[in-house]
Amino acid sequence: MRSSQAGQSTIEFILTFAFGLSITLMIFNSAMNYATGYLVHYATFMASRRYLTADTFLGTIESPMMALSRGEENARETYNQYSLGIFNVPATAFQINPAGNTSPQEYLTVGGFTLYDQTIDAIGKVTGQSKLELVSESFLGKEPTRAECARRVCNAITGQDSCGITLDVTLFDDGC
């Protein structure tokens, strides 16, 4: 048995350095996941907010879905302004839970949400190629459009769903 310990400190350094580097990379990757999550939350909130406040301001009874489709386009445009592709979050990850004909149980789930995946570690050696499935939701509830308010007022006054242009529907306030 040899009593010489030459090279012992080199082996200790290599093992300690590899462990320290992997911990540092794991902390860095976690910080990037948190930062990406915050940015995705903000982008989802801003896009959902733009969708939920969209209105054509026409007030015509015949075009209630026109405001909603334009609102979805505006929401996607707002979401894409944040360039989340840099963080491996595709633009297609953002989806709209539409307002349309929602029941009272689904009313508060109207808005936008983003489903995306992120890697757990940067190298892929600690956890393999496992990915986190993350969700960012912004369900704020949709105020009725002016067209929907006009339809409700028309129905309250005449009992019909369509008044055409014969009835002036200016009786609604603060979202019907």
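That was protein one. Protein two is written in the same sequence-then-structure order:
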Amino acid sequence: MGMNDIKAAFTYSVPVLLGYMAIGIAFGLLLVDAGYPWWLSLVMSIVMYAGAGQFIAVGLFAAGVGLAEAALVQLVVNARHIAYGLSMLKRFNRTGPFKYYLIFALTDETFALLSSLPDQEKRGRFLFLVALLDQSYWVLGSVIGAMAGSLLPFTLDGIGFALSALFVVLMIEQILRVRKAQVFIIAALAAVLTVFVLPARLSLLSAMVIALVAVQLISMKK
């Protein structure tokens, strides 16, 4: 892997760098504030690497939730990745030895980047570099936050909004890049519909399914 590839992947992943550093720091601060050692942020960010799932895990740990219940909650929260994986299946099958890491590292933000890559950048090596850089940003941010939280007192009011803020930034970035407003309008309408009609635990996954089906149907008609 040449320096040009690394430089190109870094440039492409800068939006995630800015978001993951901030949110990773927030996660690290919350983890140590809940009474856990700083090094657990490193272990979780390398082995678990689940973003919102890690935030939820801290709350579950602190509440003393059992392993089976915690696993069920994480399954529901991360069920949206089924849709991500299915949409990237063909692309990942062409990535050779990078395939399994790409499956593991397919977070919301990495999916947003990889799914909108121009054709000339869809080779496995470039996908791998983007995914690896994204995880390195998350790991670095979470460790910085945990170590800072262990050494310095922080007020954590409102810090949980950091994850939502990153999703908003990435959505704006994709709107400017893709320039296909109907996809985002369909997704927004599906989200609003499911929030008002379905229970909270089902709304996210249902909205994704509805949006994906609607977009596919519109694409088939063109």
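The longest helix spans residues 3-33. Keep this in mind for the problem set.
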